[in-house]
Amino acid sequence: MICSSGRLIFTRNLTIASKSAPLLFAKRLPSSPKHTLLRSSSDPSVSSFSLFFKAGVSRPVLFALRSDRTMASQSSAQSVHDFTVKDARGNDVDLSKYKGKVLLIVNVASQCGLTNSNYTELAQLYEKYKDQGLEILAFPCNQFGSQEPGTNEQIVEFACTRFKAEYPIFDKVDVNGANAAPIYKFLKSSKGELLGDGIKWNFAKFLVDKDGHVVDRYAPTTSPLSIEKDVKKLLGIA
């Protein structure tokens, strides 16, 4: 957002002046048409960038990027507990409510070849350890073979009716790409893989300790029951 107290004056030679917002830097970019990148800082907590095209337009094209404060809050996240997500009904859920819980975070799908085995074992694992501090967080995702095409309501009904899922199921999200949910960007950056950080398929799993730190990551083909020993270790169960 351009600071409202600053006045930008455009001349034929694209002279830029600001009444109250000092010019921090102006850099000529080599691409054509020629354009100038300006940063204004009347408020040190806000970074505002504007791109002014010199040729072919009578008015400047402005692009406002996110403030430094917004970027800092996302990049400074120290744990899963720093994030707020949407539940299946669109309500905000502050993940700090899970402080003191061991979390297994899974991207789920209803029409995958891994659906039956994973949903069945997730329900078994949850039933066995939910009273001892385990919470499973399921995030539907339709990015892999379009195998989660339903609405949130249909997804919840499927999981709860067919597989007796008692753990929370959240809003459908992207886990890869530019629109990936912030929580998944954090999970992937915390535990990358040799072939890249991206989620490979449905039912990738992240194990999170009681302090919200990602301690392990498992492939989609890793069965939930096979990581029971890791869950017990974090729960402090002998």
Automatic annotation (TrEMBL):
Keyword Oxidoreductase listed: yes
Catalytic activity: a hydroperoxy polyunsaturated fatty acid + 2 glutathione = a hydroxy polyunsaturated fatty acid + glutathione disulfide + H2O
Matching Gene3D superfamilies: Glutaredoxin
GO molecular function terms noted in the UniProt entry: phospholipid-hydroperoxide glutathione peroxidase activity
InterPro entries named in the record: Glutathione_peroxidase, GPX_AS, GPX_CS, Thioredoxin-like_sf, Thioredoxin_domain
Domain Thioredoxin: start-end pairs: 74-236
Keywords: Oxidoreductase, Peroxidase
Cellular component, GO, one term: cytosol
Xref: SUPFAM superfamilies: Thioredoxin-like
Superkingdom of origin organism: Eukaryota
Keyword match Oxidoreductase: yes
Any GO BP: response to oxidative stress
PANTHER family named in the record: GLUTATHIONE PEROXIDASE, PHOSPHOLIPID HYDROPEROXIDE GLUTATHIONE PEROXIDASE 6, MITOCHONDRIAL-RELATED
Free-text function comment from the UniProt entry: Protects cells and enzymes from oxidative damage, by catalyzing the reduction of hydrogen peroxide, lipid peroxides and organic hydroperoxide, by glutathione.
Family according to the record: Belongs to the glutathione peroxidase family.
Name of the protein in its database record: Glutathione peroxidase
